[in-house]
Amino acid sequence: MSKSEVLVSLFSYNEGDKLKKLVKDFPEKREYDILFVDDGSTDGSYEYLKTKDYYLIRHEQNQGIGCGIREAIDYGRKNDYKIIVIMAANGKMLPHHIERMVAPIIEQDYDYVQGSRNLSGGESPNLPLFRKVMINLFTKIVNLFTGYKGTDITCGYRAYKLSPFDDRRFNLDQEWLNRYEMEYYIHYNFIKGGYRMTEVPITMAYPGEKKNYSKIKPFIGWWSMIRPWLFLIFKIKK
């Protein structure tokens, strides 16, 4: 496999046919490498991925998206990649937007690019109304406390330069970051570190049947997303 400066990392937990469809959407000729982190799948996803020509990390038991992101960043840094793209393996994030995600880093020297459904040119077909309201409300609250005027804080399609993770403010090894906390911990520290951040419009394609559209559990999942902001803003955690 040829070596690129861009590592696209995907996180899979029992995604089944959605994972297989996503894999088919990746172009054969691409200017990035692909790493899958399988988070303890029991539906044959890992065995399927082993038949493909991708880099692969396996958790024997489910450990959480934050743990997977930590390992993907460590992998990228140890293998001299310059940029890492974070995306889910459930098919909602589209591979043909990868170039759009990394372009501001390559062409304009941004440090962090957030995907947004809410920018002009972005969309989220079939997004449930309650979830849309909560995303917009959560985004506005985060903007109020951080001063950063983002439009879609919960979108998990992200691209980072890897060099900022040399900054000592990023202590990714903390156990409390093992689930959704990690994404917002990183976001907060990019803001507070004064790094150059921007957004690009993307599509988040939700299933038309409006069921099994997310693994975020009510209450527990949202608390996992809210508490890093409370911990960091009020200096309970570092």
Attribute tags:
238 residues; alpha/beta; seven-stranded mixed beta sheet; 7 helices; globular
Characterization of this structure:
- This protein is of the alpha/beta class and 238 residues long.
- It has a single domain, classed as Spore Coat Polysaccharide Biosynthesis Protein SpsA, Chain A (Alpha-Beta Complex), CATH 3.90.550.
- Helices cover 36% and strands 16% of the residues.
- Strands 3-2-1-4-6-5-7 form a seven-stranded mixed β-sheet, with helices on both faces.
- Strand 2, helix 2 and strand 3 form a beta-alpha-beta unit.
- Helix 6 runs parallel beside helix 7.
- The longest helix has 18 residues.
**Terminal residue distance:** 38 Å
What Rg, in angstroms, do the CA atoms define?
17 Å
Q: Give the second-level CATH assignment, the architecture.
A: Alpha-Beta Complex
The largest sheet is: 7 strands, mixed
What is the strand and helix layout of this fold?
Blueprint: E1 6-12, H1 16-25, E2 33-39, H2 45-50, E3 55-59, H3 65-78, E4 83-88, H4 98-108, E5 112-116, H5 129-146, E6 158-161, H6 181-192, E7 197-201, H7 220-233
Parallel strand pairs: 1-2, 1-4, 2-3, 5-7
Antiparallel strand pairs: 4-6, 5-6
Helix pairs in contact: 6-7
